[in-house]
């Protein structure tokens, strides 16, 4: 009897080992089911939420991974992946669903690398920004799908040409002086954008995202800002010209991390094109205006690159497993890049958090700001930097910091009040006089008891 049982269990185990992982295309209902399935399998480290609806009323779902879902933990960076913005470019959508299943499964298996990632990072995964376009493309099927069928949203608009154009302002500022960061939205921006774009803009303004990738198809290359060339049109002719950001070296590194961890992107020759190292400045390839990655960089603290992942925009189902294996390591390594550079707290002399303090790095004309919790994140390559924090009504604070290739550098910038709020000079020794400021000991305590919160459903 026990022999029979043993055979039975071995057969069961064998079946489990050889049972094929299902790689398939997911229509909208299937996508929603898969997100909730992952959430049900990993309820303590995930949350499903929607940032809004498409033109046809489909939800723009996000699956969040964190050890405290729904909560921003100070000093834990927020990172995002967005797929399927062009409805007919479907590989990113499928890879992000695979990634969600992978993170959940490996966390449950105790994979230390994934446990560390989930415990130290808040990861937001949006498999589809254009669910309406996807349905149009999927109805055609992989083999007969036209090159552009389903690319746009249901109003026929290309969502990656639909963000407010902030490049025009920044290129003007470069010539005439003015900021390169946190450029304001135009007054009438809502009337100029599609529902999907508006939802994404609200989303990226409501989280302090640090790093992001936007997944596309039709080529195999990691593309970094700017997408819009400095001289976008000269006498009606589109110009392409390498148009680097002040963070060009960092963006090249981020793009290379993906291309070199990818199975074949770094080889350069793909889909009949050649890109050295498998990366390219967006504008030097072809200039596009009102794209999402430039908007992220110019309006928020978020550094976004665009990943072109497959020659075939709608690969056949049989290709999906190979694509997943080619991208899996790259998708994880890119997320890990958010822990590079410096981060810290900006505090006043009473250790209150200071939001929207400006963090400047000398030699790089692109500032970031602290988030609602007073924490800031500045991605930087290894090197020594002079970093200054400023906030209205406070004395600037400058520190010199060396960033190594490994762990993030923690810099706590204490703000000191120079003047009382009414602007009068304080008497010597008064609370508002300058005082020495001690760096905080940064032991993080959970805002709420473990696993008891964060399962709110925003639909
Ligand atoms: Zn695309």
UniProtKB/TrEMBL annotation:
GO cellular component annotations of the record: extracellular space
Gene Ontology BP annotations: peptide metabolic process; protein processing
Record's keyword terms, sorted: Carboxypeptidase, Disulfide bond, Glycoprotein, Hydrolase, Metal-binding, Metalloprotease, Protease, Secreted, Signal, Zinc
Stretches assigned to the Peptidase M14 domain: 24-338
Single GO MF annotation: metallocarboxypeptidase activity
InterPro entries attached to this UniProt entry: CarboxyPept-like_regulatory, CARBOXYPEPT_ZN_1, CARBOXYPEPT_ZN_2, Peptidase_M14, Peptidase_M14_domain
Signal peptide: 1-20
The protein, known as: Carboxypeptidase N catalytic chain
PROSITE patterns: CARBOXYPEPT_ZN_1, CARBOXYPEPT_ZN_2, PEPTIDASE_M14
Active-site residues from the entry: 308
Quaternary data: Tetramer of two catalytic chains and two glycosylated inactive chains.
Main location: secreted
Family designation: Belongs to the peptidase M14 family.
Reaction(s) catalysed (UniProt annotation): Release of a C-terminal basic amino acid, preferentially lysine
């Amino acid at each position: 009897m026990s022999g029979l049982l043993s055979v039975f269990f071995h057969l069961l185990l064998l079946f489990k080992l050889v049972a094929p992982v299902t790689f398939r295309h997911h229509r909208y209902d299937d996508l929603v089911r898969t997100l909730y399935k992952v959430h049900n399998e990993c309820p303590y480290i995930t949350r499903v939420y929607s940032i809004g609806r498409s033109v046809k009323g489909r939800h723009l779902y996000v699956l969040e991974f964190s050890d405290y879902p729904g909560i921003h933990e100070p000093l834990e960076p927020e990172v995002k992946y967005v797929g399927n913005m062009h409805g007919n470019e479907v590989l990113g959508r499928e890879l992000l669903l695979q990634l969600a299943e992978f993170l959940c499964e490996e966390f449950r298996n105790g994979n230390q690398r994934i446990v560390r990632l989930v415990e130290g990072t808040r990861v937001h995964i949006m498999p589809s920004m254009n669910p309406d376009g996807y349905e149009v493309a999927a109805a055609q099927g992989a083999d007969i799908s036209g090159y552009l069928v389903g690319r746009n949203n249901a109003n026929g608009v290309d969502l990656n040409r639909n963000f407010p154009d902030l490049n025009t302002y920044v290129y003007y500022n470069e010539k005439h002086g003015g900021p390169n960061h946190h450029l304001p939205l135009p007054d009438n921006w809502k009337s100029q954008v599609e529902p999907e774009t508006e939802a994404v803009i609200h989303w990226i303004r409501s989280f302090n995202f640090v790093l992001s990738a936007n997944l596309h198809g039709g080529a195999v290359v990691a593309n970094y800002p700017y997408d819009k060339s400095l001289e976008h049109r000269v006498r009606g002719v589109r110009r392409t010209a390498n148009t680097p950001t002040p963070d060009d070296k960092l963006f090249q590194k981020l793009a290379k991390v993906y291309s070199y961890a990818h199975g074949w992107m770094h080889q350069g020759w793909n889909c009949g094109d050649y890109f050295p190292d498998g990366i390219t400045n967006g504008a030097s390839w072809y200039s596009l205006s009102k794209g999402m990655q430039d908007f992220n960089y110019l309006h928020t603290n978020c550094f976004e690159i665009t990943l072109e992942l497959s020659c075939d925009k709608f690969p056949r189902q049989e290709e999906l497993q190979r694509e997943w294996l080619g991208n899996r390591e790259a998708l994880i390594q890119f997320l890990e890049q958010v822990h590079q550079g410096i981060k810290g707290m900006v505090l006043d002399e009473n250790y209150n958090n200071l939001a929207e303090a400006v963090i400047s790095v000398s030699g790089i004309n692109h500032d970031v700001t602290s988030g609602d919790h007073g924490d800031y994140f500045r991605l930087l390559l290894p090197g020594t930097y002079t970093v200054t924090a400023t906030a209205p009504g406070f004395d600037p604070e400058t520190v010199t910091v060396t960033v190594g290739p490994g762990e993030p550098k923690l810099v706590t910038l204490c703000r000191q009040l120079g003047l009382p709020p009414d602007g009068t000079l304080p008497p010597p020794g008064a609370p508002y006089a300058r005082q020495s400021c001690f760096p905080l000991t940064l032991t993080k305590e959970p805002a709420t008891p473990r696993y008891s919160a964060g399962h709110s459903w925003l639909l």
